[in-house]
Amino acid sequence: MLSSILFYSLDKAIRQYRRMAQANIDRAGVAITIDQWLVLRVIEETDDLTQSDIAERVFKDQASVARMIRLLLDRGMLQAEPLPQDGRRTRLRVSAEGHRTLAALEPVVLNNRAVALQGLSENDLNTLRFLLEQIAANCSKQPE
Q1: Which pTM was predicted?
Q2: Among residues 29, 40, 25, 23, which one has the least CA distance to residue 75?
Q3: 3-state secondary structure of 92
Q4: Could you count the other beta carbons within 10 Å of the beta carbon of residue 43?
Q5: How confident is the model at residue 115 (pLDDT cuts 50, 70, 90)?
């Protein structure tokens, strides 16, 4: 039975969370997807990343990240500044509009997390975090 497979349950939880979170973002009237929000947040946290670095951090392929970056640039949420030492590269920075969007979504994101983690103690969360990191480490040791 699928429900007895741990990774099925994990994927189900993630998909349910993303559905709920996106619905709440939409209800808040902010025109952005969860993945676009993730890209914006990653760039806000570290603004000197390559597209492949960003893709790795948000668990998406480079082509998808390139499309999201282009859309965020077109919507004025990101700015691209040419690097003086390398004219082929640009540094992505979150624009004022991007910061406004992130700020508008902060309460929605915090509420989404609170709803999803309701009933879990701090100890439960620490254990879950540890176990998920262990699974990720186990998987990264395997040859691809």
Answers
A1: 0.86
A2: 40
A3: strand
A4: 22
A5: very high
